[in-house]
Amino acid sequence: MERLYHSIKEVAEQLNVNTSLLRFWEKEFPQLKPRKNDKGSRFYTAEDIQLIKEIHYLVKEQHLTLEGARQRLKSSKDEVTKKQEIVERLTNIRKELLSIRKGIVANTK
């Protein structure tokens, strides 16, 4: 069973970004609203994490400005979601293929 909430540290590690970047994006993208407890600790849902992946895709991989990423998320969110998911799947397939290749090379030596 998947957890409902993830800490900012867990999300940052999962996406290989700094926690400060997540806090910055929270200020820049109004649709990103993680829950906060009484101490102010942030907790992200699966939907929040998906949105962060889409922002990361637009800003880091597509090299859009923050304003460009905001506009793209407003105008064509479904398209961005699909493209980001495809890139994520292809990246995972590449990692798996490289792992298989490494195993084959190791067995031939």
Quick description:
This protein has 109 residues and is mostly helical. The chain contains 5 helices and 3 strands; from the N terminus they run βααββααα. It is 70% helix and 6% strand.
Q: Identify the CATH architecture.
A: Orthogonal Bundle
Name the poorly predicted regions: none
Q: Overall pLDDT, averaged?
A: 90
SSE succession: EHHEEHHH
Task: Determine the structural class based on helices, strands and strand pairing.
Answer: mainly alpha
Beta-strand residue percentage: 5-15%
Profile the largest sheet: 3 strands, antiparallel
Total number of domains: 1
Please give the radius of gyration in angstroms.
17 Å
CATH class placement: Mainly Alpha
Q: What is the general shape?
A: globular
Count every helix, treating DSSP H or I runs of 4 or more residues as helices: 5
Q: Strand arrangement, largest sheet?
A: 1-3-2
How would you describe this structure to a colleague?
The chain has helices at 8-15, 19-28, 46-61, 66-75, 77-108; strands at 6-7, 35-36, 42-44. The chain is mostly helical. Strands 1-3-2 form a three-stranded antiparallel sheet.
